[in-house]
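SAMPLE LOG
Freezer: B-3
Tube label: C17
Construct: single chain, 117 aa
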Amino acid sequence: MATLRRKPEPVTAVELGELRHEHFAGRVGERFTLVLADEAGAETVIELKLSAATEPPETRADHAHFVEWVGPKEVFLEQGVHTLRHDELGELALFLVPVGEVDDGFVYEAVFTRVDD
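STRUCTURE (predicted):
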């Protein structure tokens, strides 16, 4: 298993504050890509599959919702900001946390919160 560092160019095409549960819920099963670079600068493109988009409970004032992806077993992503690319959502610089492992790879989670104006 390789541990690669993230490529340092997080560019956000969609304002993170505008992302809602609805942006992800209809995309479960879709692929997101992530470009990583090794110590020599060689790039590796990996795919993460959106596996879950948890709807925020009405009782939470921060509207927290959780989104999970499954990445390949051959590459472990460390906790931190990673730029995910999606055909419709564009580039999203998200703080991903490894939260588990399943048969086909590692599970990563991003948590989104917002406060109503």
